[in-house]
């Protein structure tokens, strides 16, 4: 669109539109119309025009019939398509960009922090009287001013109701009906859905905004239809290195994120394949040595492996790079992870230096990456440097542990683990406590730090949940694979088979509870609910996964135990028969590993479920607040089962725990049913949907005219039933 062919028109004194022509100046476009003192224009798919009327000039007319007074700022939208009407974003997916305070001050709303700075600078030149304010949409100031204006108009409405009585009530009724029809037509036409799927799955949050890279538009403005034919010639070339982009970040209480859903990359799934082996090595090593020392080795090695996995997930979630160099970095981290895995079994005897060296290589590489991101992205430099130092501080303790013999090195190991796991949480708490306070309550140091920590990278909720679900699936898969054995008896239905089937039922029940009970029908996901619930959800997964891996590894040994009837080791293939030898008496440590693992897993799952806000419905048989205490009580019972010692054989122990776990599952399933609807059958009538060969435009026009669209069903030439407009 050229300046001389601008479709922008004005309406003066309700006369016919008169076109405005613009001249190209050194710093923008200035109108040749004498009624306009200044005009700043950016030509894109939408061009935003800021027009200030001179004193004595004719007013522009708002679509509602209320004129803008002389000297005011009129914000208009123009498109390449020739739209000649001012656009004022209303309540249906669009947002007000300008408000008028009862005092006469003009309030302007910016969609993004960048637009806030540009708009304030532009208005400073356009409105010399400076009788205006600019706020970021969704900020505390924006909410306060809207409440203040709302209260003012509520008082005016009360005054009008008292003064005009019946006439006012009739007008309110007509307006309500128009609002209902406008909402219905909006749902049929231009309803913006860029975040609807996200809100439906994880819960609504008014503090979320979307912004696409390279675009100045946000979720405040609905996106236009894409030309899919033109997309064919817009492929993306592979590059060795791209400048990284922050996928999402917090700024002044708002979460800015890309509108697209972040998909799990293929190389992330490849990394998970390596963790299948890591889980197996750590779990099997613990089951072979069911002692306090074995538990200590299991906890330390598993936490280190989990931390390496978390580092990869966080970096990929924070930054969008998608270049060859990123793949090389991931390959280097996988090499360190591979070396770490090879030195787990003998870590506390001979390979401690090698295992910690590979761990530190991965962690220090992450620190260098954070420093590099801080250099490349000044917006988040403060947080990147802090994250790098959070790696270096515990790294010094890990290096010192190499120089100390066991058990003295434990005094260095556990502080290092605490710093690795919770260092970032401490930073978040301090930031919320001292930096995110209102400016009036901040000290001089806090004000200086605010400039460094104003922007904070955020975790993508879809990516985090998908990656966590994938890891949990690996754990469930390991527990099932660990149950497998090879039978050589002609009739193999024996105690080995029975215990393995009971273990399979356990794994199925846990999978059902985690994915289809605790993570189903969410109103608000824990990550979106609050920072405390988000931290609780993230860290509750570590004891859950550790406990279940320990229980699964122990169960694989209990399946091969020969302490019960019909459990003859000669019925197993030689390699499994060797494992079954010397299992006539089950070590008490193995019983504790198995039962405590299951119990802690159930308690951790309860904490994960409690962090979410689930939807409720009328007639629900048993709400979550009543089911979770029962689940925790069952977990405590399972934890106490080893006290029975030899009075419970391996078969009896596995059967008892399976029955208790299935009881928990049955209670949760029953609690999620409707007492007003029969459990065993459905009484609701079936409903069918059909695609109609009717244009949406015809339906919209019919709604505007108040007409009814009638449909008839006939048979076409092929004898098929079709619907068409009568």
Note down, in words, how this protein is organized.
- A hairpin with a 5-residue loop joins β19 and β20 (721-725).
- The longest helix is centred in the last third of the chain and has 29 residues, at 531-559.
- The model is unreliable at 1-94, 188-194, 213-225 and 720-725 (pLDDT under 50).
- The protein has 21 helices and 20 strands.
- Helix content is 52%, strand content 11%.
- The protein has 4 domains: 3-140, no CATH class; 242-454, no CATH class; 460-675, no CATH class; 696-725, no CATH class.
- The protein is α+β, with helices and mostly antiparallel strands.
- Strands 11-14-13-16 form a 4-stranded mixed sheet, with no helix packed on it. The chain has a 3-stranded antiparallel sheet with strand order 5-6-7, covered by helices on one side.
Nearest-integer average pLDDT: 76
Q: Strand sequence of the main sheet, in spatial order?
A: 11-14-13-16
Shape: globular
Distance between the termini: 43 Å
The number of domains:
4
Bin the helical content: 40-55%
Which regions contain 5 or more consecutive residues with pLDDT less than 50? 1-94, 188-194, 213-225, 720-725
Number of strands: 20
Report the structural category: alpha+beta
Main β sheet profile: 4 strands, mixed
- Helix tally equals 21
- Strand proportion: 5-15%
The radius of gyration over CA amounts to 33 Å
């Amino acid at each position: 669109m050229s300046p001389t062919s601008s479709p922008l028109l004005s309406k003066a004194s309700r006369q016919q539109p008169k076109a405005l022509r613009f001249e190209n100046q050194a710093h923008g476009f200035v109108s040749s119309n004498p009624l306009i003192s200044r005009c700043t224009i950016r030509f894109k798919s939408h061009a935003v025009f800021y027009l200030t009327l001179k004193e004595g000039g004719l007013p522009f007319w708002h679509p509602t019939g209320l004129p803008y007074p002389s000297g005011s700022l009129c914000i208009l939208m123009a498109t390449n398509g020739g739209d000649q009407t001012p656009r004022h974003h209303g309540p249906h997916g669009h947002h007000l960009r300008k408000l008028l305070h009862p005092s006469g001050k003009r309030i302007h709303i910016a969609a993004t922090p960048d637009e806030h700075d540009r708009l304030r600078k532009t208005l400073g030149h356009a409105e010399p009287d400076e009788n205006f304010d600019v706020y970021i949409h969704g900020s505390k100031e924006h909410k306060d001013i809207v409440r203040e204006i709302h209260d003012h108009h509520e008082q005016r409405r009360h005054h009008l109701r008292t003064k005009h009585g019946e006439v006012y009530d009739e007008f309110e009724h007509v307006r309500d009906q128009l609002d209902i029809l406008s909402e219905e037509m909006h749902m049929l036409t231009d309803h913006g859905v860029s975040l609807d799927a996200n809100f439906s799955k994880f819960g609504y949050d008014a503090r979320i905004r979307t912004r696409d890279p390279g675009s100045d538009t946000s979720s405040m403005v609905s996106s236009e239809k894409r030309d899919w034919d033109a997309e064919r010639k817009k492929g993306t070339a592979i590059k060795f290195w791209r400048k990284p982009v922050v996928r999402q970040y917090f700024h002044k209480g708002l979460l800015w994120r890309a509108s697209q859903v972040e998909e799990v990359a293929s190389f992330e799934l490849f990394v998970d394949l390596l963790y299948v082996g890591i889980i197996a090595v750590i779990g099997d090593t613990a089951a072979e040595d069911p002692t306090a020392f074995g538990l200590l080795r299991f906890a330390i090695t598993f936490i280190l492996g989990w931390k390496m996995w978390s580092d990869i997930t966080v970096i990929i979630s924070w930054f969008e790079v998608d270049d060859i160099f990123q793949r090389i970095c991931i390959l280097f981290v996988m090499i360190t992870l591979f070396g770490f895995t090879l030195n787990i079994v003998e870590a506390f005897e001979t390979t401690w230096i090698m295992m910690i060296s590979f761990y530190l290589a991965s962690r220090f590489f992450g620190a260098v990456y954070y420093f590099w991101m801080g250099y490349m992205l000044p917006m988040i430099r403060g947080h990147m440097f802090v994250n790098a130092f959070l790696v270096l501080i515990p790294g010094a303790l890990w290096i010192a542990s190499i120089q100390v013999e066991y058990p003295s090195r434990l005094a260095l190991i556990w502080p290092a683990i605490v710093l690795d796991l919770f260092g970032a949480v401490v930073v978040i708490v301090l930031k919320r406590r001292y930096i995110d306070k209102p400016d009036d309550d901040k000290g001089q140091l806090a004000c200086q730090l605010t400039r460094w920590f104003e922007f904070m990278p955020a975790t993508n909720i879809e990516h985090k949940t998908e990656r966590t679900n994938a890891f949990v699936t690996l754990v469930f898969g390991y527990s099932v694979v660990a149950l497998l054995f090879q039978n050589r008896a002609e009739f193999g239905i024996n105690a080995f088979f029975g215990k393995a089937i009971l273990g399979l039922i356990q794994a199925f029940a846990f999978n059902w509870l985690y994915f289809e009970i605790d993570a189903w029908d969410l109103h608000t996901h824990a990550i979106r609910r609050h920072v405390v619930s988000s931290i609780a959800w993230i860290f509750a997964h570590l004891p859950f996964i550790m406990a279940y891996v320990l229980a699964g590894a122990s169960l694989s040994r209990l399946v091969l135990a020969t302490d019960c009837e019909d459990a003859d080791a000669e019925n197993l293939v030689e390699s499994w028969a060797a494992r079954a030898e010397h299992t006539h008496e089950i070590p008490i440590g193995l019983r504790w590993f198995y039962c405590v693992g299951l119990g802690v897993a159930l308690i951790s799952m309860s904490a994960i479920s409690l962090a979410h806000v689930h939807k409720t419905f009328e007639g629900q048989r048993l709400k979550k607040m009543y089911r979770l205490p029962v689940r925790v009580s069952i977990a405590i019972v399972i934890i106490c089962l080893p006290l029975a010692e030899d009075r419970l054989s391996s078969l009896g122990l596995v059967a008892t725990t399976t029955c208790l776990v299935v009881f928990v599952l049955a209670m949760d399933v029953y609690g999620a049913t409707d007492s007003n609807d029969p459990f065993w059958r459905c009484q609701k009538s079936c409903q069918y949907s059909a695609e109609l060969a009717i244009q949406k435009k015809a339906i919209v026009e019919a709604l505007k005219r108040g007409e009814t669209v009638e449909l008839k069903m006939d048979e076409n030439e092929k004898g098929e039933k079709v619907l068409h407009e009568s």
